[in-house]
Amino acid sequence: MSSSFYKAILDPIFNGKSLKWLVTGASGFIGSHLVEALLSSGQSVVGIDNFSSGSKENLKEIKSSLSELDWKNFTFYEADIRNKDSLRSCFSGIEYCLHQAALGSVPRSMKEPSLFHDNNVTGFLNILEILRDSSVKKLVYASSSSVYGDNTELPKIENKIGNPLSPYALSKQLNEQYANLWSNQYGINSIGLRYFNVFGPRQNPEGAYAAVIPKWINQVISGNPCLIHGDGTTSRDFCFVANVVVANILAALNKVESHSTFNVGEGNTTSLLTLHNLIIELLKSEGLKISLEQSTPILGEAREGDVKHSQASIEKIVKDLDFKVAVPFKDGLSLTTKWFYRKHTNGTF
To answer: Which of 226, 246, 206, 208 is nearest to 332 (CA)?
Structure first.
């Protein structure tokens, strides 16, 4: 990944316009990619984060990939979305807000529901309250495919959500309800993007709640077999992070003026067993020696709160926002594998 990578994708969208953006969760996985993409396209960016799940290393990597001139367009504030008073000054002069700050992980939310409500719901409400008194033209915020809950229909269509299966899922449903209320009562323009299993460089591979793709890549490189929760037939719509970046920019600049939600995915599914085999083959192609034992996954118990299958319908976002998948799943997985392998080879992981 590089600044030129994003510049090539986004320059036709901006068409020479220079705007002022606020990105919450700017040092996190998705937030840092948004910051990098915006700065590489000549935009002015204010970023905020409290580093609860983000990393200062992500900001250093962005800086190293940009020209000195582009980096000067970035202002960073260490702030917590749960502290409304510390946020107000960050919104001065902002035209578009991309809200990514939140706690992820379904299983962690089952163990720490109050923490998830505090960050994902109260923090989100603080952002909305500040927007009532700001000049921000539009809020684009991270929702989640988890809002579909116990609705087993495939593919997932925006107007057919189910009952939430975890505190995390409930927090994202509440975000959408609050945003809709703010649109109806206060005229705050907002769009919620329901992300489907986003992956890519800079995603944290460590810890009990790490996402599956970086975790497995990291485990295989480290010489360990991977644990699959369930029988391996569980499937997901994996979406490379560059596609999420494009969706955010299109959503912000679109003329939609009432609250709306859109799926962000590829519209395809990949089983966990297939994903595992692809990661093994990609790492072998990088020159990694992998034993038979190491390449054989361990099957364990399914996780509480997880759905069996997830697949996005992307008809709405294609039609209304002119969205196109910029980087297909297998290309994105190859880019991600190369990035992690390079990090390990250089000793930075």
So the answer is: 246
Instruction: Please give the Cα distance from 132 to 134 (Å, whole number).
Output: 6
Does position 348 have pLDDT exceeding 70, yes or no?
no
To the question of domain 3-197+240-265+310-326 being in CATH 3.40.50.720, the answer is yes
Q: Is 168 a catalytic residue?
A: yes
In b/e form, how buried is each residue of 305-314, taking b as 16+ CB within 10 angstroms? bbbeebbbbb
- Give Cα 52 distance to the centre of its chain: 16
Q: What residue ranges do the domains of the chain occupy?
A: 3-197+240-265+310-326
Q: How many residues does the chain have?
A: 349
Cα-Cα-Cα-Cα dihedral sign, residues 204, 207, 211, 216: positive
Q: What are the respective helix, strand and coil percentages of the chain, to the nearest 5?
A: 45, 15, 40
Q: For residue 215, which amino acid is it?
A: K
Ranking 58-62, 155-159, 209-213, 322-326 by mean pLDDT, the lowest is 209-213
Residue pair 200/246 in contact (Cβ under 8 Å)? The answer is no
330 CB contacts (<8 Å, ≥6 apart)? 278
Residues 6 or more apart whose Cβ sits within 8 Å of residue 62:
32, 35, 36, 39, 71, 74
* Residue from 96, 168, 178, 341 carrying the catalytic annotation: 168
The pLDDT tens digits of the residues spanning 32-63 come to 999 999 999 999 999 999 998 889 999 999 99
